[in-house]
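User: Teach me something about this protein's shape.
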Amino acid sequence: MDRRTLCAKGLVERLDVGRPLAPVIVTASTFEFESQAEVDRYFETGEGYVYSRYGNPTVRQAERLLAQLEGAEDAACFGSGMAAITTIFLTLARSGERVAAQRELYGGSVDFLSRVLPELGIEVLWLGREEIGGLEPSRIAGCRVLYLETPVNPTLRIVDLRRASSAAREAGAIVAVDGTFATPILQRPLELGVDLVVHSATKFLGGHSDLIGGAVSGSSELIEKIALRRRSLGGTMDPFTAFLLYRGMRTLAVRMEAHCRGALEVARYLAGHEKVEEVCYPGLEGHPDRALAESQMEGSGGMVSFTVPDGERGASRVHDRLRLFVKAGSLGGVESLVSIPAKMSHRYLDRQTRETAGVPDGMIRLSVGLETPGALIADLEQALRQEPVRRTGS
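Assistant: First, the predicted structure itself:
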């Protein structure tokens, strides 16, 4: 064999790798067949692998684990959370049809729904969170999808999934919910009547701020349709990311326990601070949705938002003084992060839209990591110490 041919062909050994505890990272872009008959069987049955944009063994292991965690029949992984969200809509709705969406959503979701879908001829019916709590089927008649988010980013309000799912079912709409903040450890929307659960796997599922990914879980019928559209749109997750996601999900339960404990301590500290106007955390006694959260969640999560006086200037001063909290976007990692939603996740929404969604200029969002809660509280104390004392209503 000449050297050029040897370089091109390589020396592929068929090794018995035993029974590894971690997924084997299959980086192959394409897969070998023994015959045309085997190729035909693949396209007739869908069993096996042909090309990694269509499906990949490492990605498949992550999908199967997530489906088990969600109590779903199947799951599909994507190259980002937005790829997952957009593929849901581009699978289930067509030009001339309508979808309904909660008004209080992650900024990227709002941008896609308000800007991109109308350009494609898909009408969006916007619903306030409070309206969804008493949703009547007639309100969403003719809508193909009802899209929700709970807990809501960054206000930490809770949406009644049972009520919304019941109304949507009667109206003939498919319910999809962004459950990124809760994860399947704290909330399993499929058990509450939801059809599809979407996650930014970048966040708590991965858990280490080292991957970008998304995922959708649901019935085999719906996931098959979404995965087929994913093949056309090209938003497939890559194998190494799937390996990292699988590894992250193996510690998800213990991480969420720690996130919840730390966030509750931080929220209680902030709620008693004279220089904080409002604290948003479902686990606090004064939270308006605490009873609802307890009825559909098994913990309050690792996210805390709070508002300080003097709007954007006050939030910026506190933000900039923090030392242990890392000043960065995203959330759900082992390290604690801080951001100002009006200047980060919701930056490109106009002021009226932000205020309608309950996101004031003075709001600060914390992703509480795995550090000692006392150390995080000490960092907040030194950052707040120089702020003026002025509470709402005083």
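Now, about its shape. The chain has a mean pLDDT of 94. The first helix runs from residue 3 to 9. If you'd like, I can walk through any region in more detail.
User: That's plenty for now, thanks!
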